[in-house]
Amino acid sequence: MTTTHSHHSKFNWHNLTRPFSVLAPMDDVTDTAFRRLVLLCGAPDVMVSEFVHVDKLLAGHHEDTRNRLLFHPEEHPLIAQVWGNSPDHTCAAVKTLIDLGYDGIDLNMGCPVSRAIDKGCCSALINNPTLARELFLAARESASDRVPVSIKTRLGFDRLITESWTQFLLTLNPAALTVHGRLATDMYRGAANWDEIGKVVALRNGMRSRTLIIGNGDVQSFSEIQERHDRYGVDGVMAGRAVLKNPFLFARDGRTMESLSPAHRIQLLWHHAELCRQSLGETLGFTVLKKYFKFYVIHFKGAAGLRASLHRAKSIEEAYLYLQPYLQEGPNAALPLHSGTPLNSDSPVY
Ligand SMILES: Cc1cc2nc3c(=O)[nH]c(=O)nc-3n(C[C@H](O)[C@H](O)[C@H](O)COP(=O)(O)O)c2cc1C
User: Fold this and answer.
1) Is 111 a catalytic residue?
2) Per residue in 288-299, pLDDT tens?
3) pLDDT at 341 over 90
C-alpha cells in the first residue's frame, strides 16, 4: 500500500456535461472494490466514498477508516464524503483528504441514523444551521481553491422545510448541492419527493446561484437520469440502492444484471471477489464480499443452493470451488464489460 498523490487534472463539477450521473455514497457498500466493479459495468461521471468521520480520520489508526479511504487511480473523479461536528477537525481532515488525492469534499448533512444525529452530526445539522455553516466554511477554507466542496442533505428533519433550508445552504455557495427527496425521519420509507427537489432548482435559478443541484432518491435506471433532468431541471442525478441490484445502471446501453446469463453473473461476482481480495486481503475481503452474494446469485436454477454453499465457505478460494462449475469458459471469458484496468494492475492507494 503506497501513499500516492495523483496527477489527474483538477476536478470541476461545472465541467460535467448535464445531466451528469453520480454514484451515491453508501456506508459499508461503496468501497473501492464495489466502485471499481461499477466502473467496469458502466461508469458514472462521479463517485463518492462512504462517509468518513473526521475525528477518526485524524486519529489515523482505525483500520476501518483506513479501508474506507482506499481507492484506485481509475476511480477519479472521486469525492470524499465526511461527517462530524467539529469545524477544526473538518478543516484538518479536508487537508488530509486532498493530500490523499480526492477530487472534492462532500459534507454529509443528511444521514438519519441515531449514532450520527445523537452527536449533532449529519441530518441533525438541518436543525442547527449555525454549525452547518461553520462546518462548511471550515471545509471550504481548508480546501481553498484546490478542490470543490459540496453538500448532501434532505428536505428537512421531521417536517418539510425544503425552501428555507436549501436557500440557507445556497447562500453558502457550495459547488454542488445533492438533495435526497425525503425527510430525515422518513429514513428510506415512502417515495422520494421529486417535486420538492424541483423546487430547489427553481430557488437556485431565482437566486442566480451557481451551485449545481443533484437530485437523489429512487432512481432505477439509466433512462431516468435524463428523465429527471428534463422534468425537474436538476443538473445531475445520484443513484444508490438500485446500483446494488444492477451495477450496470450507469451503462448507456440499458443493460441490467437480470439480462446477464448465470455464467456471466458468476463471472462478475468472481471479478468482485478479486477486487475485494486486492483491496482488503483474503480474510476481510471475503467477509465484505459475502454481503453481495444475494445480488449476483439470484434468479436462476440452483441459485439458493449455491448461495447457501457460498455463505458456508471459509475463504475466497473455497467459494471459487462452488463457482467454478457455473463458468462455461473460465473467469475471464466473454463478459461484456466496459473499460477498466486489468485485475493484476497496481494495488489501491491510500
Ligand atoms: C446502505 C446505505 C448506506 C448509505 N450511506 C450513506 C452515506 O454514507 N452517506 C450519505 O450521504 N448517504 C448515504 N446513504 C444514502 C444514499 O446516498 C442515498 O441518498 C439514498 O439511498 C437514496 O438514494 P437511492 O434511492 O438511489 O438509494 C446510504 C444509503 C444506504 C441504503
Assistant:
1) yes
2) 999 999 999 998
3) no
Helices (H) and strands (E) in the chain, counts: 15, 8
Ligand 1 binding pocket mutation candidate from 22, 26, 57, 291 (most atoms within 8 A of CB): 26
Centre of ligand 1 to C-alpha 253, Å, is: 25
pLDDT band at 60 (very low <50, low <70, confident <90, very high): confident
Residue at grid coordinates 475466497: 316
Residue type, 211: T
Which of these, 187, 171, 165, 190, lies nearest to 179 by C-alpha position? Answer: 165
pTM of the entire structure?
Answer: 0.93
Q: How far is the CA of 137 from the centre of ligand 1 (A)?
A: 24
Q: Which of 28, 121, 241, 245 for mutating ligand 1's site (highest number of atoms within 8 Å of CB)?
A: 241
Pocket lining for ligand 1, CB < 6 angstroms: 24-27, 29, 50-51, 81, 108, 110-111, 152, 180, 216-219, 239-242
Q: Could you read off the pLDDT of 84-105 as tens digits, one per residue?
A: 999 999 999 999 999 999 999 9
CATH of 260-326 among 3.40.1130, 1.10.10, 1.10.1200, 3.30.70 = 1.10.1200
How far is Cα 208 from Cα 318, in angstroms, rounded to an integer? Answer: 58
Domain ranges of the chain: 16-245, 260-326
Cell of 211: 451551485
Q: What is the CATH number of domain 16-245?
A: 3.20.20.70
pLDDT confidence of residue 346: 44
